[in-house]
Design goal:
The chain has 209 residues and is an alpha/beta fold. The chain contains ten helices and five strands; from the N terminus they run βαβαβαβαβαααααα. A five-stranded parallel beta sheet has the order 2-1-3-4-5, sandwiched between helices. Strand 3, helix 3 and strand 4 form a beta-alpha-beta unit. It is globular, with a radius of gyration of 17 Å.
């Protein structure tokens, strides 16, 4: 199995490569340092599964999953993240990710997830499976943050994590004016007035620590 890995931390990439290449049937054929590099690498080498970090500079998260799936619809994308799956996994799976795995998972779980998605399956935990079932059934009232677009959701999370408009613009390769426009939409959609209220809202809904 040929694997493309993408993470903005060199030590994480090195660790992933060591874990994966300890198995004879797994071969890391490309390493990307951010989302844009991942898209470029994906077009330069032959690969079977992409393992990508959730939060990287440039294209990341839902946006990167959608881009890879649009270009390579037959190749699965597995997302790794330091964040609990109940915060972001559902949105990523809806975008086309084949699975979501917390970075604190055991190496054997990552290897098992890779084999499952490479065989055409999806990798989700039992708890996430229940959330997916509830979401598909349409039961329960949808919280306001779920009505945000993927880009709005990403920027909302960054703002709630304490990033400034300028920092977000630099990370996402957007203009500060564009980020400010998104911020205004987000505040309106979730009915808060400023960043402080946005942070409290995100903490209350367990979107950030």
């Amino acid at each position: 199995m040929r694997i493309l890995i993408a993470d903005d931390h060199p030590l994480v990439r090195q660790g992933l490569k060591q874990v994966l290449e300890a198995h004879a049937d797994l071969d890391v054929v490309a390493e990307a340092k951010d989302g844009n590099d991942a898209v470029q690498q994906a077009g330069s080498v032959e690969w079977d599964v992409a393992v990508i970090d959730f939060n990287m500079p440039g294209k990341a998260g839902v946006e990167l999953v959608k881009e890879l799936r649009r270009r390579y619809p037959a190749r699965p994308v597995l997302v790794l993240s330091m964040y609990p799956e109940d915060r972001y996994a559902l949105r990523l799976l809806k975008a086309g990710a084949a699975g979501y795995l917390n970075k604190e998972s055991a190496p054997e779980e990552l290897v098992g997830a890779l084999h499952k998605v490479a065989a055409g399956g999806r990798y989700v935990s039992a708890a996430l499976g229940e959330k997916l079932a509830l979401a598909l059934s349409g039961s329960g009232e949808q919280p306001a943050y779920e009505k945000l677009s993927d880009r709005e959701y990403q920027i909302m999370w960054l703002l709630a994590s304490g990033k400034t408009v300028g920092e977000i613009a630099k990370q996402l390769f957007l203009s500060a004016n564009t980020v400010s426009t998104y911020r205004a939409r987000i505040l309106k959609k979730i009915s808060v007035k400023n960043n402080a209220e946005l942070m409290r809202y995100a903490i209350r809904h367990q979107l950030v620590d």
